[in-house]
Structure formats: C-alpha cells, structure tokens
C-alpha cells in the first residue's frame, strides 16, 4: 500500500492513482480509504477471491461506479471524465456484446462509435484469433469465443489502458496462453494492463501483483518478491500465507473459499464487495 | 452527440431486428389481423368499424414500440452493452435518437401496410388524407419508444418490463375516447384523460377519419403527441446514468 496521504502522487510512470477511495453500497463498505497506484506500460494482476472488490475497483477506474469519497485519476485525469472515454478499453466479466448480431456487425458498430474506420474490424478479429468467425452470430458461439469478441471490442481503439475483468475465465489452456502472449505484446508496445483473476497461477505472467481481500490491498509486489517474502512455492500458497499472517482468521475456514474461487465459478456481480 | 454515431446506432438496431424476422412479422401482421377481426365482429354495424377503426390503428404502434423498446433497452442494461457504450465516447442522445429512428422506420412500414389493408381491402372509410394517418401513426410510435425507454429504467427484468405494458397502456386505452367519448366522461376522468398523450392521438385520428382537411386542432393534437414523445426522451436520457451504485 502507498501512504495514507490523500493527494495522489502522479508521476510519468503512473497510469492510475487511487487516493482515499471509499465506496459504500447501502450500509456495506466495499472500500474504506483505499490507496494504490498502477504503473504505466506494465501488466498489473489484481488477484483475490470472488467478492473481494476486484470488479468494483475496476468499475471505479473506468468511471462507471459511484464513489462515496476519494480521488481516482487515470493518466492525470479524473476517472470517468469525458477525455478518458477513448483511452480505456474495458472488458467486463459479462460478455458485453450483442448476441443477436454477428462478430463483424458487433465490431463494426463499436468501431463507428469510436470513430474508427471499418477496416479496424478485421484487424482486431485477427488479433483475438476470430478472423474466420466474422460472419458467425455471437449467440451461436462458445463461451470462450464470445469473451474474445468482447475483448476485441476493447482493443478496437488501441487504448493505452486496458482493464480486463477475468478475461481468461472458461478458456482452454492453449487459448489462455495465447491471450497472455497477446497481453505481453500489448504491454511491450506501451499499453497499461490491469487484469483481474482468481486463478493464482496466472499471476506468474504479471509484472506487478496486487493481492486483494475484503476491499483491502494485502500486498503490492512482484511474483519473485512475494515468493521470497512468504517462502511459499507458488502464488496460491503465498496468498494463503499472507492472509494467515495479516489476519487472525484460521486457515481451515478460508481454504474452501479459495478452492471455490479457483474453480472459475461465475461470481454474482451483486455479491461483489467486501463483507466487512 | 454526432450524426455518425446516431446513424450507426440506428443501423445496428435495424440489423438486430432483421435477425429476428418473427418479431417483424408479428409487428406487421398483428395489426392487420386485429383490423380484420374488428371488421368481422361489427359486420352488421359498419359505422362502428369506421368510428373506431382508425383510432385503433393509432394505438397499435404505441403498444408495439412500447414493448419492443422497453425489452430492448432492458437487454442493453442487463447484457452490459449499455455500460460499455456509456464508457465510450457515445452521447446519450446518439443512443436514444438512434433507437427512435430505427423504431420510427419500422412504425412507418407497419402503418403503411395497416392503412393499405384497412382502407384498400377492408373498406375503412377515411375522409381525410391518408398521409396524415401515417404521420399520426409514426408520432405515436415515437411516443411508444420514448415511454418504453423511460419505463425500462424502473424494471430489473424482462418480466417486469412486460408488466409495465398493461399499467401504462390500458388506462390510456380506457380514457382516450375510444370506448366512451371524452366529452361525456366524469370531470375527474376527463381531467386525467387530458393528461394522457394517447387521448390526443385518438382525437387526431378521429378528426382525420371524418374531416376532409387536417384542421388546426388536429395539427395541435399532433404537436402535443410529439411534445410528449420529446418529454419522454428527456426522462429516458436522465435514466441512463453513466455511473451506477
């Protein structure tokens, strides 16, 4: 965690700065004075069990979540401001495309909204490996293909910031690897990526890690640092070690939750948020 | 808001409807079947068919477009496409006007076919100009789209959206002057009737069916329907917040 200083520290290396963020939903507090920064041109992994606030944090950064208090800046601008709308590609956990249209019709529509030429459509389809499915109706595609259509929409405008909420859920290992290769090449070209996952082994592909639990950042680190500091063999073990270290919760109560989270169950968006 | 984005939205909505030929068929065929049924029910009272035939033609587009819009908008909300669009450089007006143009286009076709069948095949007597009938139908369709958009904000599921149909449509049908003349209603009912947009559409249709020229009152009634449609749009735009809880 960065300091409790409420002024965000915006340097040239910072893509996102969150200072004093508080989000309440009813009487439930999702975040209470959360502070963090996310580095430019890197892949930051946001890891944690279902319901820990990953999606809410992403929605705050994209600017579609009402916040109670705090200062959230993306590239120096206030989150949600009109100037950022062309700069952020956001992929939600739901497949946010029209399932009664073809891949091409979807991509063409969103390209036109972004003011891009129609030729961008076939380019992004090729990027996500759907160039042969341009004419397919989204409704008739598999879950993995549909989520790639949704990803393709986010890639249309070459946004310098990509916010991807569990982009690899339901994908087979080969596709998962291909997508992570794509994320690597995007980051190498200067794109900032914030990727959430509850699959801990995906953490190995991230430049930076943020481990989150119940609306708090447990640790902001890298994979080698994390493994060294916790003396664990893998990220999942390190995460468990961190939790037992920082809270008084007994481990046996928690382990089933993490197992469930790792099974790629569909999290209920209503339930997203802390239980504090 | 730009013409390009609005037009892109219109084309997208039309493309979606074209993928659903059954809905289009229902939209076009149901009014014709109901008109034929009406003609048949009042077979020995042709003046009744002439009296309520045209006003009824003015109510169909409202019901169809109200239902289609509330369900379509709700699907945009639940599928996440609305949130995605609002996080993009899309003006709310682009979305709303885009929908209006697309559904207005379908209402135009619906009304052309219904009027052609009612007048040509079923012998509906229309003293006034037929273009005015089509114009009122399209205005009513735009009104239905506006209302559907405004109401969809209060529905969480498609089931709820459909339940709004009787709630919004039936009181208007009862009070619009179709079943009982507005002049003879109790003062309270007359007052409520004056507040409901469909009353003005039915008044306009009734006048067109009996008067050779479009009178000043009819123009005024059409303007009132258009005004309600615009008011509904403004309400609809405010129910599309870029941020949610």
CATH superfamily of the domain at 14-87 and 159-267 in chain A: P-loop containing nucleotide triphosphate hydrolases
Taking all Cα atoms into account, the compactness measure Rg of chain B is 18 Å
Shape of chain B: globular
How much strand content do the residues of chain B show?
under 5%
Output the radius of gyration of chain A: 18 Å
Termini distance of chain B? 25 Å
List the total number of helices of chain A.
8
What sequence of helices (H) and strands (E) makes up the elements of chain B?
HHHHHHHHHH
**Overall mean confidence score, pLDDT of chain A:** 84
Structural class of chain B: mainly alpha
Written account of the structure:
The complex is a heterodimer of chains A (276) and B (245). Chain A has 276 residues and is an alpha/beta fold. Chain A has a domain of 183 residues: 3-Layer(aba) Sandwich (Rossmann fold). Helices cover 32% and strands 23% of the residues of chain A. In chain A, strands 6-7-8-3-9-10 form a six-stranded mixed sheet, sandwiched between helices. In chain A, helix 2 packs across helix 3 and helix 6 packs across helix 7. The N terminus and C terminus of chain A are likely disordered. With 245 residues, chain B is mostly helical. Chain B has one domain. Chain B contains ten helices and no strands. In chain B, helix 6 runs antiparallel to helix 9. The radius of gyration of chain B is 18 Å and the shape is globular. Chain B starts with a helix and ends in a 7-residue tail after the last helix. In chain B, 44% of the residues are buried. The mean pLDDT of chain B is 89.
